[in-house]
Specification:
Elements: H1 3-10, H2 13-21, E1 35-39, E2 42-45, H3 46-53, H4 61-87, H5 94-118, H6 125-134, E3 143-153, H7 158-164, H8 170-180, E4 185-192, H9 198-206, E5 213-217, E6 220-231, H10 237-266
Length: about 290
């Protein structure tokens, strides 16, 4: 159960009944020390509880206690279902074995990435201030672009993307999408230079007037045409802090990419069966796609 679900459950009387029910788990002596609850003979430790809470805390002691009770209840329910699954022989199923392998790999991969990140130096204030100076289009000269925007799925057929690549009109692009039966949404929107990669903003500003361009957004592709823009400078300590986060994020991406490249090289590369390799990235409509990461 995620913290969002825990907190939602706390809002209803039914959830409070369920939370109270978690105190009835277990038998024999009352839990103590690092054991916060028992499910039969299975113990729930403080470490398990902290992991379930995933860093959640509140200055309101009552909210914290309710969240802890809900988290213990979630752990207890999970243990009961897991035990029932083991007794039913589900550990031997192909589905379980594959899911367990995937979970193990994800946890190990995340731990290794975190190890890499933990060794990276934090950007200094001087570095952050210099970044702000070097990227005026995101800070001192920051703009908010008002756009006519079309959103399509990120996995849109590459053949269709090739059809709209040479087009310079949003209406012409929309007609191609309509004729192909492609789902899309067209509506006015805004692009904040502060929240857009610097190299993408620089390229947007260099585009010819009325030229459409593509930017990824929340798992989708957006085709945009700038209709207007307004200057909203972003400076001072807040800008420096944002720059610091951007620099560190770039360091993380670079370090992860370098580690992955070395690991692929050590493994002898990745070899694909025909038809399973990655597809070439589509170019943008109009031919000038701002590069984003």
């Amino acid at each position: 159960m995620t913290m969002r679900k825990i907190l939602v459950c706390l809002l209803g009387a039914a959830a409070m009944t369920s939370i109270a029910g978690c105190h009835r788990f277990g038998s024999g002596s009352a839990p103590s020390g690092q054991v916060v609850a028992k499910v039969g003979s299975d113990e729930i430790t403080q470490r398990e509880l902290n992991a379930e809470l995933n860093g959640f805390s509140s200055q309101d002691a009552a909210i914290t206690k309710n969240a802890e009770a809900a988290a213990i209840n979630a752990i207890a329910n999970r243990k009961l279902f897991a035990d029932a699954g083991r007794k039913g022989g589900l550990e031997k199923s192909a589905y379980y074995q594959l899911a367990r392998q995937r979970a193990d790999e994800l946890l190990l991969a995340q731990a290794y990435e975190q190890q890499i990140v933990s060794k990276l130096p934090q950007p200094t204030t001087d570095e952050a201030e210099q970044y702000v100076k070097d990227h005026p289009n995101n800070f001192a000269d920051r703009k908010i672009f008002l756009v006519d925007q079309i959103q399509i799925a990120k996995d849109t057929d590459p053949q269709l993307l090739r059809k709209i690549t040479p087009l310079h009109s949003m209406d012409d692009i929309e007609q191609v999408l309509l004729s192909s039966g492609t789902d899309y949404v067209r509506a006015p929107s805004a692009i904040d230079a502060r929240a857009t990669p610097a190299e993408a903003v620089d390229q947007i500003l260099r585009l010819p007037p009325n030229e459409p361009f593509v930017l990824p957004l929340n798992g989708a592709l957006t085709i945009n045409h700038v209709t207007d823009s307004k200057a909203v400078p972003f400076t001072g300590p807040a800008a420096t802090e944002v720059a610091r986060k951007i620099i560190f994020s770039q360091r993380v991406s670079k370090a992860i990419d370098q580690a992955l490249s070395q690991l692929r090289k050590s493994a002898g590369g990745i070899h694909y069966q025909a038809g399973y390799g990655p597809s070439p990235s589509p170019r943008k409509p109009g031919g000038n796609q701002p590069k984003t990461h």
